[in-house]
Amino acid sequence: MASTDAAVALSSAFFSSSSASSSSSFLGASLFPVRQGSPTSPSLGVGPQQNYRPHNLCRASASSTSTLPELAHQLSVAQIQKSPVDPRTVVSIILGGGAGTRLFPLTKRRAKPAVPIGGAYRLIDVPMSNCINCGIKKVFILTQFNSASLNRHLARTYNFGNGVNFGDGFVEVLAATQRPGEAGMSWFQGTADAVRQFTWLFEDAKNSEIEHVIILSGDHLYRMDYMDFVQKHKDSNADITISCVPIDDSRASDYGLMKIDSKGRVLYFAEKPKGDDLKAMEVDTTVLGLSPEEAKKTPYIASMGVYVFKKDILLKLLR
């Protein structure tokens, strides 16, 4: 994989001015190219693994014909939009994954995020490390399948007594559970349903300061500064932001793919398309900052499964 590959984060068009008409899809986006370096270790077939170094390509400028009040207003707006995000207002939700059939027999007695890697570590430690190193110390982990080994590892590694000291943060395991009523008798029906069943947590008074929710997969292997990602999400005033990576034909059918316009707005999303549907998802990835040669090799834009939501929008979509 060339070190000049590029990843992108696509900011959804559910802007605050149009939130009332938003739906549960990710259509509409503004582009945020992200340059990446060479991979450092294999991905084990569970997700793209890259080094992320964002470069904001947007540059604000003031017209020479602007009046002083107009210029002052423009500068004021720019300062507000670029105010740094407080990590205390960000919570991470890490998805424990499904049955893990593609990694069998490694997943015979454990969930995918609990599969050992590098001797003393588990796959779950990769997104956990990304969170801790970028300052996100409020983490929920959703589990269901074969979760005993994963729960044990989390309890031993990330607790307040003899693990990482999180101060005012937390690491909480949210296991699939049944609740009173007919609707509460079923287990998680998917990743969105897993988050939906615990939306009441974000309405709790102790989580009132949370403004942004970042949703991650617990079985992907990559390095990324999530706060850079959340910062772009805030600066663009998007309701939803999606992190993506350009990929080639050989792997495109394994991922959710997007088509975008010249401004990077998501026009269409297809989950693991095949055949003619796959060919229809080809795009000119030079819009992401790739050279024509690079774009020809990687004509698809794949979702990395990393999302940022405004908390209020997430709750609205899942109700």
Automatic annotation (TrEMBL):
Catalysed reactions listed for this entry: alpha-D-glucose 1-phosphate + ATP + H(+) = ADP-alpha-D-glucose + diphosphate
EC number: 2.7.7.27
Top-level lineage group: Eukaryota
GO MF term list: ATP binding; glucose-1-phosphate adenylyltransferase activity
Biological process according to GO: glycogen biosynthetic process; starch biosynthetic process
Pathway of action: Glycan biosynthesis; starch biosynthesis
Signal peptide bounds: none
Domain Nucleotidyl transferase: 92-318
Keyword match Calcium: no
A Pfam family this chain is assigned to: NTP_transferase
Family indicated by similarity: Belongs to the bacterial/plant glucose-1-phosphate adenylyltransferase family.
Protein name: glucose-1-phosphate adenylyltransferase
